[in-house]
């Protein structure tokens, strides 16, 4: 049996090279781009450890809602934060001002239902006064929008999304546990009349509830400047979620193409969450928000502030929230707030929790299984046939601002770190012919690669400034249990 470890040609070549060679090595275009990104990151509080630049802030202005949509809230409602725990208008504007100063260019007001907040027009007007803010948007259920939209438009509202999950009035009442379908339809009509183009209509698609209305929604785009956005059903506490209710992006496209075979994809901007499609000849278009099956984490540029003032760097990462409200009310300075924001953003994970599998698969030559007594027992693997086996593992190493600057400037004493391995994803591959798998060797190899980077940078590190994380198996082939590929 032979075992050979591959940790990438760049890694092996660089380890053998002298410091002089390190210093003179010409970086590839990709490495140079990464250096430039690191240079920017050192001072930018809105860039995370994966280089994602956050320019879009969603601010929830209230927890209250005048509907009880069954995928969003239990029929009895939820326990609300006391009024004095909700951000005041002054606090919203102060936080928005700070984020805009640091690079936020789009703000969306959400809820709950934002239009139930009495000062919603004033909030929009205040935000519009910031010269560097390029877009103000709102997401609403449209129930009372016909009364408020003209004033919101005068205040400076640039765009709006209206939530509507069905074109059938009785089904609307079943979904929302309230009346009001005609009012929502009237709000969509008014938005079109006021020249909002496009008017975005959000529709959560649920199997057995409204998946039979996909074509009806698409037909709405024939003569109106609408952007119908079909959203994959997502899990939230309280909606009694199960995956059987989700209709996938691919399945929705297949259904639509049965009626419109020429249904075609449109170009998307880098940070778009909606995948744009269109029936040729129709005025409007269709989009798909595919959080469950085709996540857009790699290009995510969004941050959220909850109604009670928590900064939420990812919709699905509740444990990472930090309270900006408490910091404000305790007299935190602008620099204090920036430091809180910077730390939260740098802690944002590469991928959201719904799609990230927190499992580590491993196997060694010493195999164990649980005996009926509950004790671990060694297993004989001598009976197994030899086969070709490959395992690929990866890991991440996170560094602080001092080391980031040294790496970006190629001033690390022990050599050119980026020529050894990209910090965001060090990969190791192990191949063998034998009776047992090589997952453990791959995981060990990537650990050694990470430790090599750690050793190169430790002279400039303060306590806890560096950490190696997310060492995991990416794929394996061969063996009795078949192939594995991490999704």
Describe the SSE topology:
Elements: E1 2-6, H1 9-16, H2 19-24, H3 29-41, E2 56-60, H4 89-102, E3 106-110, H5 120-128, E4 135-140, H6 145-155, E5 159-163, H7 169-176, H8 181-193, E6 199-205, H9 214-219, E7 226-232, H10 249-259, E8 264-265, E9 274-278, E10 285-289, E11 302-305, E12 310-312, E13 322-323, H11 324-329, H12 334-346, E14 367-370, E15 376-379, E16 387-398, H13 401-408, H14 417-420, E17 426-434, H15 439-457, E18 467-477, E19 484-485
Parallel strand pairs: 2-3, 2-11, 3-4, 4-5, 5-6, 6-7, 7-10
Antiparallel strand pairs: 1-17, 8-9, 9-10, 11-12, 12-13, 14-15, 16-17, 16-18, 18-19
Helix pairs in contact: 3-13, 4-5, 5-6
The rounded distance between the terminal residues' Cα atoms is 30 Å
Uncertain segments are 1-27, 356-384
Structural class: alpha/beta
Topology, number of strands: 19
The biggest sheet amounts to: 12 strands, mixed
Strand fraction band? 15-25%
| Number of alpha- plus pi-helical segments | 15
- Helix percent reads 25-40%
Mean pLDDT: 81
Gyration radius, rounded = 26 Å
Order of strands in the sheet with the most strands?
8-9-10-7-6-5-4-3-2-11-12-13
Enzyme class: lyase
Family: In the C-terminal section; belongs to the MoaC family.
Protein name: Molybdenum cofactor biosynthesis protein 1
GO molecular function: 4 iron, 4 sulfur cluster binding; cyclic pyranopterin monophosphate synthase activity; GTP 3',8'-cyclase activity; GTP binding; metal ion binding
